[in-house]
Every structure is written in C-alpha cells, then in structure tokens.
C-alpha cells in the first residue's frame, strides 16, 4: 500500500489524514496517510527517513514549507512562484515540490462559494508565505485589480515586482493596510493575525454588500476579521474550504484522479 503523510510541528490538530482517507475511499485508491511530527531542527532527516520507508509523497505544513522548497530537485511553476512547498512527490529521479495552497483557495472561492474572480477587485492582506502562494492562482483568473496590502509595504512591493510580468492585464499594486479605498469584491486575509484574535487595520470601506471576505484561518467561531467584515456588510468565509481543496489538488498530483470535495467539506463543517 502506497504511503503518504503530513509533516508539521505541531501536527496533532491536522485534519489531513481524515481528508485523504475520505478521498482514497471515494476514488478507490489504496493508500495510507499519517501525521508525522518532525523536529524543528530535523525536517530534512524526517523526510529522508520517510522516503527510505517507501513513502510516495507528503504534505508539508507550518513551519516547514520554506525548508521543503529547498529540499526539492524540481519545482512546479506554482511552487517556484510561491517560494514555498506544501506538497512533495517522491520519484525515482528525486523529489518534486508543488504548492497547492493558492489553487485550493481559488477553487474554494470560485467552486464552493460561487464567486467569480474574473474582472473583480481583489484585496489580498499580507505578503508572507500564504499570500505569496495565492498571487499566481488569483492572477490566472484575471481580476481587474489585485491590491496586496501589508504592514511592511516594501515586502508587498517586492511581490508585485515578482509577479508584474504575469499580471495578465490586472492592475497589480502594493500598499499599507490603511491605504486601500473603496469597496472590493473579494478581500482575503492571508495574515496570521486571527491566531492572536487580531485583524489587519484595513478601512471598513473595503467591505460592503456583496463583498466576499475570506480568512485563511478556520475554527468553530468566526475570526475577528470575519466578524469585522460581517459587521460592515460582507459575506464571510473561513479557510476550511481552502484546506479541503488544496488537499484535493495534492491528491490529484499524487494519484492522477481528482476527488469530489462538496460532501466532505459539509461533513467537516458539521464537526467543527
């Protein structure tokens, strides 16, 4: 039976084994999938040990996505663009790195939330690894405007410079959190502020009726960001759908078959 796992530290909270077990059952794929706690200073050794045991692939979560990027002999285009890897494929020729986070985000927005990105004004909050992985998949859907807002404007400007050639005609810009003006169609919180029950200091006017406000974090209760957005008229969504969709992308990369996500997302939502 082909072996897969997810590496992280901490890792006990991960829903990935349940998600991939459901996908395997649904698609008739024979595989096992487990959580692996990698030491903070021992990620490469943990990966080598798993490969030596016959591992075929792995997911990578916090805090190892940048290290995973460095480990790979080859990278997909979206992993190159993201500068981080969350999916590893172990082949006879070496390790291939992929990043399915951004595709998972976009699939959740368009497929599950039913909100088109094409021609829309999109505000992306944050310029770290999570935001970086989202930029190319967002641009591939041809928004009219993509604004990247970050506390350190220079970091956002570096992202804009990196993706300028791939903007596809979208108005791509960088600014501080307080700078965006007018209502956006989609506002994505790619910061970790929600973990500290905090929110980026964006103007309330970016939200309004019809705005989709998505926080990449998820939990039983709405995040502070989701509550603030809802208070100003937005439709809010957490990151659970993104989690399920990025896992489907990884499963597709490993097994060559794409699982259906709707039913599993509803099941996981009911258990929060």
Q: How would you sum up this structure, described in words?
A:
Strands 2-1-3-5-6-4 form a 6-stranded mixed sheet, with helices on both faces. The protein has a 6-stranded parallel sheet with strand order 9-8-7-10-11-12, sandwiched between helices. By secondary structure, the protein is an alpha/beta fold. The chain is 38% helix and 21% strand.
Detail the topology: elements first, then pairings:
Elements: E1 2-8, H1 16-27, E2 31-37, H2 43-52, E3 55-60, H3 65-71, E4 74-75, H4 77-82, E5 87-91, E6 94-98, H5 101-112, E7 121-125, H6 129-139, E8 145-149, H7 153-163, E9 171-175, E10 186-189, E11 212-215, H8 224-231, E12 235-237, H9 240-255, H10 262-271
Parallel strand pairs: 1-2, 1-3, 4-6, 7-8, 7-10, 8-9, 10-11, 11-12
Antiparallel strand pairs: 3-5, 5-6
Q: Count the DSSP helices.
A: 10
Radius of gyration: 18 Å
Q: Which stretches are poorly predicted, pLDDT < 50 over at least 5 residues?
A: none
From the N-terminal CA to the C-terminal CA, the straight-line distance is 31 Å
The percentage helix is: 25-40%
Overall body shape: globular
For the largest sheet, list the strands in their spatial order.
2-1-3-5-6-4
Q: What structural class results from the helix and strand content?
A: alpha/beta
**SSE order:** EHEHEHEHEEHEHEHEEEHEHH
Record field, number of beta strands:
12
Into which percentage range does the β-strand content fall?
15-25%
The overall pLDDT average reads: 96
Largest sheet: 6 strands, mixed
